[in-house]
Design brief:
The protein is an alpha+beta fold. It has a single domain, classed as STM4215-like. It has two helices and five strands, in the order H-E-E-E-H-E-E. It has a five-stranded mixed sheet with strand order 1-2-3-5-4, covered by helices on one side. The longest helix is centred in the middle third of the chain and has 14 residues, at about 65-80.
Length: about 110
Amino acid sequence: MSILAELNALLVLLGIPLETGAFTGKAPDEYVVIIPLSDVFEVHADNTPGLEVQEVRLSLFSKRNYLQRKNQVVGTLLQNEFTVTGRRYLGYENDTGYHHYSVDVAKEYGLQED
């Protein structure tokens, strides 16, 4: 399992259109773009990684009041054992009419064999 797969499945249940990297279709009034940030190994005493921490940024774009949707997304993330490492309002985009809010999210995963 990966953070991208989990977030895609979770946010679809909330009825939020989403894509990874960029929203390529006609943008609806509200959507999320998932941007991968990092995949790091946690180092232990024997210098052998035992797990991986994956982190992404969720960029919420909304032409409506973004606060309710932001609270819904963050609450759902916390209920599903994601760690929210940062949240910030990035501003109102005059040219598009969207409010832009970002949520940085991390989750630990056991090492997987390919």
